[in-house]
Amino acid sequence: MLKRIGRSVAAQETAGALLAGYIRLVRATNRWTFEPADFQDRLVPHLPVIVALWHGQHLMVPAMKRGDMPARTLASRHVDGGVNAIACRHFGIGAVRGSGAAGSAARKASRRGGAQALRAMLDALATGDSMVFTADVPKVSGRAGEGVALLARLSGRPVFPFAVATSRALEFDSWDRASLNLPFGRGAAVLGEPIRVAPDADADALESARLRVEQGLDAAHARAYALVGRTWRRRGEAASSGATPSDA
């Protein structure tokens, strides 16, 4: 019964609206630092762009969008993906539904809509919408998949690593080290340097770009965490159980 309720349009709309309201609360009640200070203006000459995120660290990203920058996000076809897509819609961010993977999981990803999602993302970029989505291989936190570099090569658009952190957060012992940002603290958003992939990039060049996305994301997160008095740790670097409060 709970699964059926969760799949209903009304339930997902309600959950998405509540999530959007919570994001706005956290955005409004934290004191923010942006690096660079004009990070949104820095994006303008490159638009549309591909904004890469780490899974589990992306809750506050919709609240960083400026109204004059059209964007879409990649949302899974699961219920939680639907709720996230609805929450993003409240911030003027559209959704491409699907999921991706790399290596031996590619065929499964295609069945889940990965190939269609790639085409939809290329169409979005071609019409001027930026794409904002998590770079991780599904269930493998901290490892960027091949899809980000491939999208950059096929579209000709640059990839910008992006990170948002808050001084107060709950951290969960999940595959992606998910962080629930909390109100009434300090926040930081950090934009990394652009990563471009040549249209004729071979497999080695794509792998190099993939690694640069990983390194750029880790650097951006390390800096964002440092700005709010915390230490960034990739999955597996620190043992924890359940949800752990952080209040720096």
Describe the structure.
With 248 residues, the chain is of the alpha/beta class. It has a single domain (2-247), classed as 3-Layer(aba) Sandwich (Glycerol-3-phosphate (1)-acyltransferase). It contains 8 helices and 12 strands. It has a 7-stranded mixed sheet with strand order 1-11-8-2-5-3-4, with helices on both faces. Strands 10-9-12 form a 3-stranded antiparallel sheet, with no helix packed on it. It is globular and about 50 Å long. Residues 68-139 form the DUF374 domain. InterPro entries: DUF374. Pfam families: DUF374. This is DUF374 domain-containing protein.
The proportion of residues in beta strands is 15-25%
Summed up, the helix count is 8
What summary fits the major beta sheet? 7 strands, mixed
Identify the CATH architecture. Answer: 3-Layer(aba) Sandwich
Number of domains: 1
Rg, rounded, reads 17 Å
Helix amount, in percent? Answer: 25-40%
Strand order of the largest sheet: 1-11-8-2-5-3-4
The sequence of SSEs as H and E is HHEHEEHEHHEEEHEEEEHE
Number of strands: 12
- Look at the structure and give the CATH class: Alpha Beta
How would you describe the shape?
A: globular
CATH topology: Glycerol-3-phosphate (1)-acyltransferase
N-end to C-end Cα span: 41 Å
Mean pLDDT metric: 88
- Structural class by SSE content: alpha/beta
Low-pLDDT parts are 100-111, 238-242
Pfam families: DUF374
Protein name: DUF374 domain-containing protein
